[in-house]
Design brief:
- By secondary structure, the chain is mainly α.
- The chain has 2 domains: 8-272 and 403-449, Orthogonal Bundle (2-methylcitrate dehydratase PrpD), CATH 1.10.4100; 277-393, 2-methylcitrate dehydratase PrpD (60s Ribosomal Protein L30, Chain: A, 2-Layer Sandwich), CATH 3.30.1330.120.
- Helix content is 54%, strand content 5%.
- It is built from 21 helices and 4 strands.
- Strands 2-1-3-4 form a 4-stranded mixed beta sheet.
- A hairpin with a 4-residue loop joins strand 3 (379-384) and strand 4 (389-393).
- The protein is globular.
- It starts with 7 loop residues before the first helix and ends in a 7-residue tail after the last helix.
């Protein structure tokens, strides 16, 4: 006799459908606005990168002009194309948010805005959709953790991100629990994303959030019209997502058991540095030691950074041939900090990547693998030429939800990223996101995001 208990995706769908803006706590509402603001800033700046130029060249091949905005550009694109491009743009600077099963904002915000634009929904629907998406993408990590998936070679931003985007789009469209379950079933049946890009610095990583957003949006649009997805997409012993991706290392049942343990969007971090989040612990430690020791580059004799096996695979590369190489390179990030005293977008232009001083510092940095270590925290030890030994370890890097950026810091980050694209309208965009739940505000924001094409 078949069990009457809900499957993991049905439990998630019930949770998603139950979310109501009026009943949400104030901190959850505010976090949904923060997620939208940060994603938009990252995407606007990303839309002006050389990699975005390659995506723009493919834009016409992917579909004709359409109703949905590609932020920072004029005209429109079909919903799926807009979600794909906006998601990729959000990730191009490696500054987009963390938590929620990966880079959740880059997957969900493009999906919900395209869904809202297509269906004539309001900003409140967008914000509720973002909360709903995090309920799914974060809870997927309960059953098979980020570490588990990463060590198996899966990029959770692509895998879990698709289902988070699906839930976000479904909730924005107003789908009920039944249709949301089918949305998750569809998205989970064709999701994916691997870490193979680490072998050569390929651009596939940049596209993963965009593809996740496109998959999620498409799944919601299909389910809205009655297309069905498998109810056991997560927990089927043969063909279920967990059995396929993490056999013997997952527990799909934990999703239903923990379904009411609070709003997961609160476990959300925002990056201060344009590098893989796994580097942020060491970056904070290196900055603190440089200041504490009053160090100049020539004072440093040797640096030792103790890392886990996961960190070795993710950020242990020594390449700086491309911007992506450098952004996934722990050694380069620490070298840049010790040589220049900062880690920001200036450190990833061509001149900075070729800087002899940075490369000389890299040669003095050793990565020490600790086989007992886990996760993305590192211990940094500096030996100075005058015989001092300095060390630091940061468990909650700046930007982590337990050490968050303030609203003021997040606003400053947005303005720094958006002003080169929107000019004075960037400040207006902050105001609009801050009142996005009000009727009519979303339309004004979307009009503002259709910025003129860059000159030159």
């Amino acid at each position: 006799m078949a069990s009457s208990a809900p499957t993991a995706s049905q439990a998630l769908a019930g949770r998603v459908a139950s979310i109501d803006w009026v009943a949400l706590p104030a901190d959850v509402r505010q976090m949904s606005r923060r997620v939208v603001l940060d994603a938009l800033g990252c995407a606007l700046n990303g839309s002006r990168t050389p990699e975005a130029g390659l995506l723009a060249a493919a834009r016409a091949d992917l579909g004709p002009d359409g109703a949905c905005a590609v932020w920072g550009t004029p005209g429109g694109a079909p919903p799926g194309v807009a979600a794909l491009l906006n998601g990729a743009h959000t990730h191009l600077r490696e500054l987009d948010d963390i938590g929620g099963g990966g880079h959740a904002g880059a997957c969900q915000v493009p999906a919900v805005l395209a869904a809202a634009e297509l269906a004539g929904r309001e900003g409140r629907d967008v914000l509720v959709g973002v909360v709903a998406g995090h309920e799914v993408s974060s809870r997927l990590s309960d059953a098979a953790s980020y570490d588990t998936m990463t060590l198996r070679g899966w990029h959770t931003t692509g895998v879990y991100g698709s289902l988070g985007a699906a839930a976000a789009a479904a909730r924005t469209l107003g789908l009920d629990a039944h249709d949301c379950a089918h949305t998750l079933g569809l998205a989970g049946s064709y999701t994916g994303g691997t870490w193979a890009f680490m072998a050569d610095g390929a651009m596939s990583k940049r596209v993963h959030p965009g593809r996740a957003s496109e998959i999620g949006l498409t799944a919601a649009l299909l389910a809205r019209r009655g297309v069905t997805g498998p109810a056991q997409v997560l927990d089927a012993p043969w063909g279920g997502l967990y059995a396929a991706c993490a056999p013997g290392e997952s527990d799909p049942g934990v999703i239903a058991r923990n379904i009411d343990d609070g709003y997961r969007i609160l476990r959300k971090g925002f990056k201060p540095y344009p590098v893989c989040w796994g580097i942020n612990s060491a970056a904070d430690a290196a900055l603190a030691l440089r200041e504490k020791g009053n160090l100049a580059a020539d004072d440093v004799a040797r640096v030792r950074i103790t890392i886990s096996e996961m960190s070795r695979r993710m950020i242990g590369t020594n390449r700086t041939a491309s911007v992506l190489d450098a952004q996934m390179n722990l050694t380069y990030a620490v070298a840049a900090i010790l040589v220049r005293g900062h880690l920001d977008l200036r450190d990833f232009d061509d001149a900075a990547l070729a800087d002899p001083a940075a490369h000389a510092m890299m040669a003095r940095i050793d990565l020490i693998l600790d086989p007992t270590a886990h996760g993305e925290r590192q211990t940094v030890e500096i030996e100075t030429r005058d015989g001092r030994r300095l060390h630091a370890r940061v468990e909650d890097p700046r930007g982590h939800w337990d050490n968050p950026l303030s609203d003021g810091e997040l606003r400053a980050k947005f303005l720094g990223l958006a002003e080169p694209v929107l000019g004075a309208d960037a400040a207006r965009a902050v105001e609009l996101v801050g009142e996005l739940e009000r009727p009519g505000v979303l339309a004004a924001l979307l009009a503002l995001l259709r910025a003129p094409a860059p000159r030159g």
